[in-house]
Amino acid sequence: MNEIIPQELVLIQQAILYCGVDEAGAGPLCGDVVAAAVILDPENPIAGLNDSKKLTEKKREALFPEIKEKALAFCIARASVEEIDEINILHARMLAMTRAVNGLTMAPQHALIDGNRLPLNLCCDATPIVKGDALVAAIAAASVLAKVQRDHEMVKLDALYPQYGLAQHKGYPTKAHIAALNEHGPVDIYRKTFGPVKALL
Known about the structure:
The protein is α/β, with parallel strands linked by helices and 201 residues long. The protein has helices spanning 6-13, 57-70, 81-87, 89-102, 137-160, 166-169, 175-184, 195-198, and strands at 18-24, 33-39, 73-79, 110-114, 125-129.
């Protein structure tokens, strides 16, 4: 990830403090949607950053503490299962990203948001970047923090609800997960408005 995209270059040239923002967990049937915002330190680069989906689990786990240690600031935030059911997953994703940006201990002047939509009520100006997690290092860092944090939470939920196999599929609607859900029925960690869950209620 050495190529600097035009939007990022403008911010760098103008010496604007910016953060990268991404989320994880839109597709799973259970658990919160998790977002992260990261302000990287240009004096302390992190090697190997990329879209979290393109990294191995081992690489993501190695980057997770390194990003936290080297970033100028980071914030991991969420929208709950209840909020997902109340306002739908799209708006919940946006809400989680707003909370991540506004929760940074160092206020950014601009936010580069992965995707083609902008969250509401951000504390700064923002630009959406399609496939930003593969183009902007700060967004890639945010994608890693969000993904690993959510995966860790799924492993903890697996210990409470071992019948669903959450540690393996992380809540995504795999064939094994659907079979387990059909056998045991949903508990309160499940998103009631999602089709496979809704069908069982």
